[in-house]
Automatic annotation (TrEMBL):
This is L-ascorbate oxidase homolog. Residues 32-146, 158-300, 381-519 form the Plastocyanin-like domain. CDD domains: CuRO_1_AAO_like_1, CuRO_2_AAO_like_1. GO terms for molecular function: copper ion binding; oxidoreductase activity. It comes from the Eukaryota. InterPro entries: Cu-oxidase-like_N, Cu-oxidase_2nd, Cu-oxidase_C, Cu-oxidase_fam, Cupredoxin, CuRO_1_AAO-like, CuRO_2_AO-like.
Length: 552
């Protein structure tokens, strides 16, 4: 058989792991996930390492690359990684949530395979099981543009990933016990930048080095657990060029609020006196401010960083106004040659409106978080497997949560596995309303969406007149300020089981999440890939015969 014929057969078949995506490069990784002991805030504590690293290794890919990643779980409990912002087109099988996959048992391994299809930009990965994210195992995931696609700025001298996040000196197991006992995790103990916090004693090694006169790209992601952070660099401005997978209008900022689960790309030019400078990340909207810092060093520079740190802005209004300044670059090409602005989302008729209101209360004396009065409980059988094996009725009852919040008291919470059916290709408006005193950050797997409005007060249909229907940024997270609402719009065109969750791990773990079932009713390969042959099976489907595969 000729090589070309063999490749053709491979391209038309379903491989042992997933569908083969012909003509696009494959990147292979092996990760050993282990415990270790480090002192990120000066106190020895158990952390979770990937290949001995904290944070984990960066994944450096290009649009349409295929990632094959073999994870060996050397922990003493099940483990699962999710790929925050990667859309997993037709492939929720690899999304890494408890509603789509069985966790990897201790002492075993699982090989993920997915394609970064038609995406560019800055992303992250982190563990979704238990409270493992509070131990580490998170890292950056970048998707570079293909060489044939123009990027709306000159190539930088180098490309750096900056992972900022608040941090606890309690271990992830201690924090989980707190939540399981019905209590909150309380306040974190510090802020880390790439797993460290500069002591400021003159002995700190630089996190990054810049050549005088050169421009660098910094990908800044908030991998934390509780708080929004403000990020700034002494004496240097930042030009925003990308936000959560979209090229933006290139505004310049002295500092940026980076919310949980969010990533920005900025350009920074080394045009100051050649010496050391601090990059600073500090908590926002908190009574007591926690600050982390790290050194940027000019090559051949002389002189320490000034101990006087640049101040962060104060209050919510500044952050809301910064959000409103973000605009989609309509003329730039993203993953494909056509300009981003060629997709006119503002001219599509809305098929369905879903209004979601978050709440916090107690059930049997224990803290729970809810959406429209429903607090999600993970099932032993992943929802996607239950759906595929046609035993969903034994695992969940769809549409328990309605499209509008109930008229009952806000503190009444029902604990149930929370799944909402959405018809494929429906164009849906989702309203997030936040009656609480703390900012909420939401993430949707499998999609990007247009964040068209964010305002104080409560939402009414009349508020649609204030929507940005021209150049709202296409992104994967949305922030809802206290006593405020936010609106997003998207087409649900990616079949699968997709998680909508709070980006605050405590709230997610205690129920502030649900799943959207965009069902492949036709069981067609045009809409969705088959269940991978190496998929782990658990729960009630463990010993069931595998269903017939999807057909063309």
């Amino acid at each position: 058989m000729s090589g070309m014929m063999l490749m053709l057969l491979l391209c038309l078949s379903v491989g042992t792991i997933s569908v083969v995506h012909c003509g696009n490069p494959y990147l292979f990784f092996t990760w050993n996930v282990t415990y270790g002991t480090l002192s990120p805030l000066g106190v020895p504590q158990q952390v979770i390492l990937i290949n001995g690293q904290f944070p984990g290794p960066n994944i450096n890919s290009t649009t349409n690359d295929n990632i094959v990643l073999n994870v060996f779980n050397n922990l003493d409990e099940p483990f699962l990684v999710t790929w925050n912002g990667i859309q997993q087109r037709k492939n929720s099988w690899q999304d890494g949530t408890l509603g789509t996959m069985c966790p990897i048992p201790p002492g075993t391994n699982y090989t993920y395979q997915f394609q970064v299809k038609d995406q560019i930009g800055s992303y992250m990965y982190y563990p979704i099981t238990a409270m493992h994210k509070a131990g580490g195992a998170f890292g950056g995931l970048r998707v570079n543009s293909r060489l044939l696609i123009p990027v709306p700025y000159a190539d930088p001298e180098d490309d750096y990933t900056v992972l900022i996040g608040d941090w606890y000196t309690k271990s992830h197991t201690q924090l989980k016990k707190l939540l399981d006992s019905g209590r909150s995790m309380a306040r974190p103990d510090g802020v880390l930048i790439n797993g460290k916090s500069s002591k400021g004693d003159g002995k700190d090694e630089p996190l990054f080095v810049m050549k005088p006169g050169k421009t660098y790209k910094y990908r800044i992601c908030n991998v934390g657990l509780k708080n929004s952070l403000n990020f700034r660099i002494q004496g240097h401005s930042m030009k925003l060029v990308e936000l959560e997978g979209s090229h933006t209008v290139q505004n310049t900022y002295d500092s940026m609020d980076v919310h949980l689960g969010q990533c920005f790309s900025v350009l920074v030019t080394a045009d100051k006196d050649p010496k050391d400078y601090y990059m600073v990340a500090s908590t926002r909207f908190t009574k007591s401010v926690l600050t982390g810092k790290g050194i940027i060093r000019y090559e051949n520079g002389k002189g320490p960083a000034s101990p006087e740190l640049p101040k962060a802005p104060v209050g919510w209004a500044w952050s809301l106004n910064q959000f409103r300044s973000f605009r989609w670059n309509l003329t730039a090409s993203a993953a494909r040659p056509n300009p981003q602005g060629s997709y006119h989302y503002g001219k599509i008729n809305i098929s369905r409106t879903i209004k979601l209101v978050n709440s916090a209360s107690k059930v049997d004396g224990k803290l729970r978080y809810a959406i429209n009065g429903i607090s999600h409980v993970d099932s032993e059988t992943p929802l996607k497997l239950a759906d595929y094996y046609k035993v969903w009725d034994k695992v969940f009852k769809p549409d328990t949560m309605k499209d509008t919040p109930p008229a009952t008291a806000a503190d009444k919470i029902t604990m149930v596995t929370n799944v909402v059916n959405i018809t494929i290709k429906d164009f849906v408006e989702i309203i997030f309303e936040n009656p609480e005193k703390s900012l909420q950050t939401w993430h949707l797997d499998g999609y990007s969406f247009f964040s068209v409005a964010s305002e104080p007060g409560t939402w009414t249909p009349a508020k649609r007149s204030n929507y940005n229907l021209l150049d709202a940024v296409s992104r994967y997270s949305v922030q809802v300020f206290p006593k405020s609402w936010a609106a997003i719009m998207l087409t649900f065109d990616n079949a699968g089981m997709w998680n909508i969750r709070s980006d605050q791990p405590e709230r997610r773990y205690l129920g502030q999440q649900f799943y959207v079932d965009v069902e492949n009713i036709a069981r067609s390969l045009r809409n969705e890939y088959n269940m991978p042959d190496n998929a782990l099976v658990c729960g009630i489907v463990k010993d069931m015969p595998k269903p017939a595969p999807y057909s063309m």
